[in-house]
From TrEMBL:
Keywords: Hydrolase. It catalyses: O-phospho-L-tyrosyl-[protein] + H2O = L-tyrosyl-[protein] + phosphate. Belongs to the metallo-dependent hydrolases superfamily. CpsB/CapC family. GO terms for molecular function: manganese ion binding; protein tyrosine phosphatase activity. PANTHER family: TYROSINE-PROTEIN PHOSPHATASE YWQE. Its EC number is 3.1.3.48. It comes from the Bacteria. This is protein-tyrosine-phosphatase.
Amino acid sequence: MIDLHCHILPGIDDGAKTLDESLAMARIAVADGIHTLACTPHIYPGLYMNDGPGIAHARARLQAALDQQGIALKLVVGADVHLVPGLIDGLRSGQVPTLNGSRYFLLEPSHTTPPPRLEASVFNLIVAGYTPIITHPERLTWVESHYPVFQRLIAQGAWMQVTAGALTGVFGQRARYWGERFIGEGHTHLLASDAHSTGRRLPRLTEGLEVARRLVGDREASRLVTERPAAVLANLPPPGFGLPPKDADQATGRPSMIRQWFSMRHPAP
């Protein structure tokens, strides 16, 4: 599996604090079946002053430590980016790194407030040649009132990434509901760990992947952690997106059975 969202680099954001913790996170990831992992520290002016060259240097140092310890994990460069003025210029200059130098990058909206002009900003990024991957929409406090916005962002060309731990209740029942809904209704491109430590938010995908399998079947679930992340790293279009035919209403293409399943299992919070 490939994990495209992980705060494993030591001491540069709110993720791993020390090299030993980074190495322990790497061992957990490998034991879970992850062979490639994107180092994606926050870039947030005024709080986390990371940049492309600094992240690349930190990745190289950690990769050397992994190799020395015999930990079979390949690291690639990325960042968890906030929507701030000058973002396109930062992407073009390399100060804001994309995932493995591709056109794809992680875009983290505010957790508590819908960004003004979000749809217009994402559209401008796409026009500029980039593919924003919106991180953990299921955990945003404003998802209830903006769910159709995320569907429109997908129609524009943005991707959605759900957190594996959200599907197992790590972030509470509300995030679990929305995570299952994003995946079950066919609005998710990637499943990632968004790991920050060896504790509650650790770099594991398998438990969340099992939930995804129950929602959309083996093939689509596998794409969330293998084929699509590989396409990102190779800078290719997404292989297969949307619900499998067996899960969609044959006449309309809408995931009618999934909607019925949700309404029976748990009402919207």
